[in-house]
Predict the 3D structure of the following.
Amino acid sequence: MENKKVKDVVCAMEALCPTAYAEDFDNVGLLVGLPQMDVTGILVTHDCTEDVVKEAISRGCNMIVAFHPIIFSGLKKITGSTYVERAVMCAIRHDIAIYACHTSLDNDFMGVNEGMCRALGLLDKKILLPQPKTMYKLTTYVPVDYLEKVRNAIFEAGGGHIGDYDQCSCNLHAEGTFCALDGAEPFVGKKGEFHTEKEVMMSCVVPSHVKNDVVKALLGSHPYEEPAYDVVLLDNANLRIGMGMTGFLPSEMEEMDFLHLLKERFGANGIRYSALRGKKIHKVAVLGGSGSFATRAAIRSGADAFVSADFKYHDFFGAENRILIADIGHFESERFTKNILSDYLCKKFTNFAVCLSNIDTNPINYLQ
Ligand SMILES: [Zn+2]
């Protein structure tokens, strides 16, 4: 069996959660290691500490796929004086590659928040804060007999995908005109003569992470020397990409019962919550990790409860008696992320082992 390289894992991760959808403040993708290196095994972890790097070495894995990026802000020196520098030094010294997905998986419809929804059995899931400026409209003009070829190439490259629908396009019959000048090699018509051609104006949406591939596919399949096309950024929200998610409990619950359900499902031993409202919980908003910035969006969505983490004292006032805020802990809210990553990578790669780290990297302890 052909050896798989670090770059193959990077490609697979890109297919799961494109780095194009990570937040601007983030630092995702391959952080340490050579793309050409053969992979001997992958260790999946929540955080990549020095202990996790050592665990990878002892378990024969030379690649770590982490949720949080160990290098978050820039490193200006690497002397081993911080836990970040020590983890990076240890990885480089032992030829261990490190990949981090973080907000690209947060923003994915099948990512962190979906994991939280699944743990609570939520139904009718929707993205809480759909990401703007992540979709384009592509329009091109194709001679009638070549429409199928060009359109298929565009679809295969990832164009025309809307929610649960694929191969979506609009096709209008039109008449194109051109006059080939000196130096041209026209596919139809004669040089120096005005030409009209029956064409189809074909348009479809293109998610931003495949925009370059789709344009390449268009140019590679179109018969004209100079195909005309427009790529326009859409203002439409992308309903499949964004922070947080909402969904409905299968049946409504009393507030305290709901808080106990959170404790049980997320192993959360330090839940902090805002004032009870005396109302049942049916619609729930979730956001894995630090989510206080989305409280108002959660209220606007009509959710009865907002489950997230890292709320400060004043953030709890933001509930305004319009929602129940439940801070279940940062690590706890993201605890299913490791499994999402390892389940996916296990299915993708059979050449080597994909292991889950045995180290509990949660830096926070709770007094029992
Ligand atoms: Zn986090």
About this structure: The mean pLDDT is 96. The first helix runs from residue 6 to 16. The two ends are 51 Å apart (CA to CA).
